[in-house]
Design brief:
The structure is a single chain. With 142 residues, the chain is an alpha+beta fold. The protein has one domain: Thiol Ester Dehydrase, Chain A (Roll). The protein has three helices and eight strands. A five-stranded antiparallel β-sheet has the order 1-4-5-6-3, with helices on one face. It has a three-stranded antiparallel β-sheet with strand order 2-7-8. A hairpin with a 4-residue loop joins strand 7 and strand 8.
Length: 142
């Protein structure tokens, strides 16, 4: 399961060298992640309504090539793990050439909002949402 978004780099995201500041890559990941979560109707508002928060506990970015002002990029978010945590991989490509520019991942865990405790397994509501999504064929992670 994956989702793609196209982003045109705004001026306020670049530094004096006309290259995207490294911290903005996580913002681009977030935009693609929200589109991915929307596909199975479990974005942040639905998470909250179900009684769970899903904070990012780990992130990694590998910067291969710089991204510049007005460049159009395609950001792909790929759901890799979901049984005990959400692990989402990201690829950023130049939208015109298809050249891969960046890759990374984030890891999120479920936290019971009322108890304020981390869950050691993803809550059933996540599996229910994934199973309800008609194109998704669930498989357990090792």
């Amino acid at each position: 399961m994956h989702a793609d978004v196209i982003i045109e780099i705004p001026f306020h995201d670049v530094d004096t060298m006309n290259v995207v500041w490294h911290g903005h890559y996580l913002k681009y990941f977030e935009i693609a992640r929200c589109k991915l979560l929307d596909q199975f109707h479990y974005n942040y508002m639905q998470m909250k309504e179900s009684g769970y928060a899903w904070p990012v506990i780990e992130s990694h970015v590998r910067y291969a090539y710089g991204i510049e002002f007005e460049q159009k990029i395609r950001v792909r978010a790929i759901l890799k793990e979901w049984e005990n945590r959400l692990k989402i991989d990201y690829l950023i490509f130049d939208a015109e050439s298809g050249k891969r520019l960046t890759k990374g991942y984030t890891t999120q865990v479920a936290v019971d909002i009322e108890a304020r405790e981390m869950c050691f397994q993803s809550p059933q509501v996540l599996f229910d949402r994934l199973n309800a999504w008609s194109e998704f064929q669930p498989k357990r992670n090792a």
